[in-house]
């Protein structure tokens, strides 16, 4: 990328604070307002004009913090992702709970599935939850080489499942479908996944040892099973 080209994400742009007549505007304030508008009106109706009106500021004041509409959407995305939490527990439970909570988040904020596939999604809240989850998984005994794959699989499966549901919910609302059509829709046919993770078997799946060395097994895998039965094997 040419250094003169605009950065593809707001997370690659340094925040330059600027005083405004009514106080100091920061990214957190913009993010909260943008997320609230998106929840109320949806992604298609979101505009910078509505955001400025909600914040009670001029367009010039808002653009001192964000370059465009995409920046505001990225802030909103990271803001709601901050609702995810990780607690100390068995690593299988950590994966299952994180996936279930992400599913709930996607449904409660119907605009989120679209943004998750559009932007970098590397804001401070996402980075914090990822680091916390990785730390808990490692401490709970999941082999370190499997931690990134396990987290990715949990988020991908949750996103794919709930993105379909959100799309159908929106379509049913727009078309005012009758009860027979609603009963046959994926929203009714697809239950919430029952997440289960199985650790790799063999010597490399044993607890960590200190002061010893061992050769990693190239066939080390993690198996995630959801309902309806689907297996995802990751080497």
Write the layout of secondary structure elements.
Blueprint: E1 19-20, E2 23-24, H1 27-41, H2 48-55, H3 59-62, H4 69-81, H5 91-108, H6 112-116, H7 124-139, H8 147-175, H9 179-183, H10 186-189, E3 196-198, E4 222-226, E5 230-234
Antiparallel strand pairs: 1-2, 3-4, 4-5
Helix pairs in contact: 1-2, 1-4, 5-7, 5-8
Can you describe this structure?
It is a single chain. The chain is mainly α and 235 residues long. The chain has 2 domains: 18-79, Arc Repressor Mutant, subunit A (Orthogonal Bundle), CATH 1.10.10.60; 84-199 and 222-234. Helix content is 50%, strand content 7%. The chain is built from 10 helices and 5 strands; from the N terminus they run ββααααααααααβββ. The chain has helices at residues 27-41, 48-55, 59-62, 69-81, 91-108, 112-116, 124-139, 147-175, 179-183, 186-189, and strands spanning 19-20, 23-24, 196-198, 222-226, 230-234. It has a 3-stranded antiparallel sheet, with helices on one face. Strands 1-2 form a two-stranded antiparallel ribbon. Helix 1 (27-41) packs across helix 4 (69-81), helix 5 runs antiparallel to helix 7 (124-139) and helix 5 (91-108) packs parallel to helix 8.
């Amino acid at each position: 990328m040419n250094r003169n080209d605009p950065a593809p994400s707001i997370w690659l742009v340094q925040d330059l604070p600027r005083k405004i007549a009514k106080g100091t505007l920061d990214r957190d304030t913009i993010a909260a307002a943008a997320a609230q508008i998106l929840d109320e009106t949806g992604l298609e109706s979101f505009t910078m004009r509505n955001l400025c009106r909600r914040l009670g500021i001029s367009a010039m004041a808002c653009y001192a913090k964000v370059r465009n509409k995409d920046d505001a959407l990225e802030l909103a995305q990271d803001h709601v992702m901050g609702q995810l939490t990780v607690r100390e527990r068995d690593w299988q439970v950590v994966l299952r709970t994180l996936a279930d909570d992400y599913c709930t988040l996607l449904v409660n904020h119907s605009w989120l599935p679209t943004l998750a596939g559009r932007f970098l999604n590397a804001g401070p809240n996402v980075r914090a939850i990822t680091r916390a989850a990785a730390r808990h998984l490692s401490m709970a005994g999941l082999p370190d080489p499997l931690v990134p794959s396990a987290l990715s699989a949990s988020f991908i499966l949750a996103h794919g499942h709930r993105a379909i549901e959100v799309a159908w919910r929106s379509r049913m609302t727009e078309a005012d479908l009758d009860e027979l059509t609603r009963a046959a829709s994926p929203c009714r046919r697809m239950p919430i996944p029952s997440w289960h993770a199985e650790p790799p078997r063999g010597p490399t799946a044993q607890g960590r040892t200190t002061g010893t060395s061992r050769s990693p097994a190239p066939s080390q895998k993690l198996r995630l099973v959801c309902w309806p039965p689907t297996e995802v094997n990751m080497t």
